[in-house]
Design a protein that fits this description.
Elements lengths: L4 H7 L8 E4 L10 H21 L4 E4 L26 H12 L2
Parallel strand pairs: 1-2
Length: 102
C-alpha cells in the first residue's frame, strides 16, 4: 500500500536510485468508502511524488483519468487544458492530485 510511508521507504532506498517514476496506482473498485479513495488515490499520489522529490527522481509522471474532464459534446476529443469536471469518485481525487502537484 503505497499510501503508507513505511512502504514508500522500502521502494525509495537511496537518492538517485530512479530517474523516472510512473505512478499508475489508484483504487478502482466501485462502492468503496470515500476515505478509501482519498487515501488510495489522492494521498498515495501525493506521497509518491513527495518521496520521488526527496529521492532526487528526475521526473515524476502521474497517470490520471480521462473522467477528470467535463464530458465533451459528441465525440470531439478533449485536450489536457480542458475544463476539469470529474464525473466519477476516482476522477474526483485524480483531479485533486493534478491540482496539488506542481
Amino acid at each position: 500500500n503505497l499510501s503508507k510511508d513505511a512502504f514508500l521507504a522500502k521502494v525509495f532506498t537511496e537518492p538517485g536510485q530512479y530517474d523516472y517514476v510512473f505512478n499508475c496506482a489508484a483504487e478502482t473498485k466501485a462502492s468503496q468508502p470515500v476515505e478509501d479513495y482519498e487515501q488510495r488515490v489522492f494521498e498515495l499520489s501525493r506521497k509518491a511524488a513527495e518521496f520521488s522529490a526527496k529521492n532526487k527522481v528526475k521526473r515524476f509522471i502521474e497517470i490520471s483519468d480521462a473522467a477528470v474532464y467535463k464530458a465533451s459534446e459528441g465525440k470531439k476529443p478533449l485536450k489536457e487544458d480542458a475544463k476539469l469536471e470529474p464525473w466519477t469518485i476516482v476522477a474526483k481525487y485524480k483531479a485533486q492530485v493534478e491540482e496539488a502537484l506542481p
